[in-house]
Specification:
about 300 residues, alpha/beta, Rossmann fold, Histone, subunit A, 2 domains, 6-stranded parallel sheet, 14 helices
Length: about 300
């Protein structure tokens, strides 16, 4: 089964409880939880939770190393094969929409990379800033711009690269994402909350991350011998604190930027998830106890439905 939702929706708690109930193991679908020592800013499960339930695809690469959807798929498939061999239940949990799409429908067939084009785009980003490149992407491919964060340098550059090489927007290549059904027999549970509620939850999570020591975590990462990869440096929560530590903004301003960029991420996730089919959506009220949400999810598992996204 697969549990999805935007950031701070409660999907991690739900996935954990379902895995405990169903004698399952969790396959994390998160492009940043893969990095070792990037713990607070990625909201990794606690050591106590990881003692009770086995997690896969967490802490698998160094922060200095790149990571891609192709690598994710290879690791995810190996983890799922291993879980099945041992007779356990697979509980995939995540919010990285591109990775979820790839897991459900496969990778899209697009052009290969062109290092000269990428170098030109990186130089343009250095001169003009990523917001300018994100706006350029919006002009040629508003669908892709809606689901790619303005801070996601890697994906913005890739989308612009595809357009330069082919004259077509990257979204036009993602034909397999229009498939009627996923490649495998997934029971998919999605958590949804009203945007205002979600924003309050995001704000509370960011506050907690600062209290838990996000600033010191980033300091430690920057002090390591190997520099952070571009992907790790651009992660929400890390990019803003790096700017703060470099003297480009106050801590208060950095915190507000983290909140704003996380809300923007959630908006992009909602846009992606609207294209997902066969999702059993649970609309969660603000004061609804987590235990009640878990019981509702268990009822869906007992008798799943294939309801299209409204």
């Amino acid at each position: 089964m697969l549990v999805l939702g935007v950031t701070a929706s409660g999907k991690g708690r739900l996935g954990f409880e379902l895995a405990r109930t169903l004698d399952g193991e969790i396959v994390s679908i998160d492009s940043m939880k893969v990095y070792r020592r990037m713990d607070i800013g990625t909201a990794k499960p606690s050591p106590e939770a990881r003692q009770q339930v086995r997690y896969h695809l967490i802490d698998v690469v160094e922060p200095s190393e790149p990571f891609s959807v192709g690598v994710f798929l290879d690791l995810a498939q190996a983890a799922m094969d291993d879980i099945r061999r041992r007779g356990k239940t697979i509980v995939a949990v995540g919010g990285t929409a591109l990775y979820i799409k790839a897991l459900l429908y496969g990778l899209f067939e697009g052009p290969g990379s062109d290092e000269q084009v990428r170098a030109e785009l990186r130089a343009q980003a250095a001169r003009e800033g990523m917001p300018r490149l994100h706006e350029a992407l919006r002009q040629i491919d508003p669908e892709a711009a809606d689901r790619i964060s303005a801070n996601d340098a890697k994906r913005i550059i890739r989308a612009l690269e595809v357009y330069r090489l082919t004259g077509r927007p990257i979204s036009s290549f993602q034909k397999q994402f229009d498939a009627e059904r996923p490649r495998h027999d997934w029971t998919i549970i999605g958590l949804r909350r009203e945007k205002a509620i979600e924003s309050r939850r995001i704000n509370a999570r960011v506050k907690k991350m600062i209290e838990l020591g996000l600033v010191n975590e980033v300091k430690s990462l920057l002090a390591e011998e190997e520099p952070l990869s571009q992907q790790a440096r651009c992660a929400i929560g890390y990019a803003e604190i790096i700017d703060h530590l470099a003297g480009r903004m106050s801590l208060d301003d950095a915190v507000e930027e983290i909140k704003k960029n996380t809300r923007r991420l959630a908006k992009g996730q909602r846009t992606w998830f609207k294209t997902f089919r066969q999702v059993n959506w649970l609309d969660v009220k603000e004061e609804e106890p987590p235990e009640h949400v878990i019981e509702r999810a268990k009822a869906l598992i007992a008798s799943p439905t294939d309801r299209p996204v409204p």
